[in-house]
Amino acid sequence: MPTIGFDDCVAVIRANDIGNYTVPTHGLYPFQWNWDSCLTALGQAHFDEARAWTEIDTLFANQWEDGMVPHIVFHKQDDGYFPGPEVWRTNRPTPTSGITQPPVAGFAVRRLFERAKDRSLAEERARALLPRIHAWHEWFFRCRDPQGSGLVAILHPWESGRDNAIDWDAALERVPTDGVMPFTRRDLLHADPDHRPTQAQYERYIALVQLFRGLGWKNETLHHASPFKVVDPGFNAILFRSCADLADLADELGEPTIATSARARATTGVEALEGLWSDECRQYLCFDRSIGERIDSHSVGGLLSAFAPIPAQRAADIAARIQELANVASFLVPSHDPTDHRYDGRRYWRGPTWLIVNYMIADGLSTARQKTVAERIVADSLRLIEESGFAEYYDPQTGEPCGGGRFTWTAAIAMEFLASSQGAQ
Ligand code: DGY
């Protein structure tokens, strides 16, 4: 039995609660982050349903008119983070960044809704969020898939949530850095530099921000203009799962137009994802849309696809691949294949294990009846928390805590795992 309990998780989430949003962790991330908030709400719902709905409402109150939901909302000034609103210059009533993040809201809102004890509150909040989430999904298909391939591209590594994944190395190399403003990073004040992206990567991150800012953040123009345009199977899987969940939610709320449209997006998307499958690697691979080539990088992005309603055989293949990774990692699921020479077990998304990713993979595999691997992922996740606390991420070999400490979404996901392991007894 785990010695970490619900109360320990609640303490972390409450300590990071600012009132109507939650920071991922104080210091390193002092604002509201998009997918952090949506996944945090799943934890909050275990002890305060109203607060969980507010977390997502606050995020969507800052949705752009074109439908995009930004990746950061800068609710107040904080000099401890770079790049702040003065770099993004998006000219919003409450300052926000100008890019987005993995769209987990559709999934999270449906899960909050189906579990809610307060039915009337859930119906009211879900009904208000439904068209907003649908508008965000449609924004993706309009602005990030202008050719109608069924798959959307990310235009900045930060959009994937997997900032410095090995997947992006070659595409990022092609981003010109001449004219990049001089800047001082703040993340290194709060976290071990060996756990964070490199300076060369930061220069390219900022070069892209400057490019998009120079184009006035006009989303219709950015896909064409961006030198970085990558189709990430993990990101797309999250979008398709959210579309499918939103369709089910719309059915329950009596909104057939949204249900039909969202379901069609999920179906077409999952079919298109098939083009990214690699028999040789037994996982999905990223695709560099700028040069029209697959990216040879065995990252967790191609395993995270199990979160979407993919064909049963694909889920079985992914389960087998993860089983194989268990021979070279003590704690599933490493964010990159440990046998790759580019793997780095402590550096952010180049190897470490992340509980939020574990949660989504385990959820998808469990639905696909790949229970053995799903249970092993949950057990490894709980072992990490037991041994190393609520870290941002963990070394898959040693379990060493990495990045920021007392991390909100790690605590939220721990609650989900604790609840599922208690329910399974
Ligand atoms: C950061 O600042 O490290 C974030 O991941 C960007 O969203």
Low-confidence stretches: none
The H-and-E topology, N to C, reads as HEHHEHHHHHHHHEHHEEEEHHHEEH
CATH architecture: Alpha/alpha barrel
Which CATH first-tier class would you pick?
Mainly Alpha
Features:
49% helix; mainly alpha; globular; 425 residues; binds (2R)-2,3-dihydroxypropanoic acid; Glycosyltransferase
Write the layout of secondary structure elements.
Blueprint: H1 6-15, E1 32-33, H2 34-44, H3 49-60, E2 72-73, H4 85-88, H5 105-115, H6 119-143, H7 157-160, H8 169-173, H9 187-190, H10 199-214, H11 219-225, E3 230-231, H12 233-252, H13 256-273, E4 277-278, E5 283-284, E6 287-288, E7 293-294, H14 312-325, H15 355-367, H16 371-388, E8 393-394, E9 401-402, H17 408-423
Helix pairs in contact: 1-17, 2-3, 2-5, 2-17, 3-6, 5-6, 5-12, 6-12, 12-13, 15-16, 16-17
Bound molecules: (2R)-2,3-dihydroxypropanoic acid.
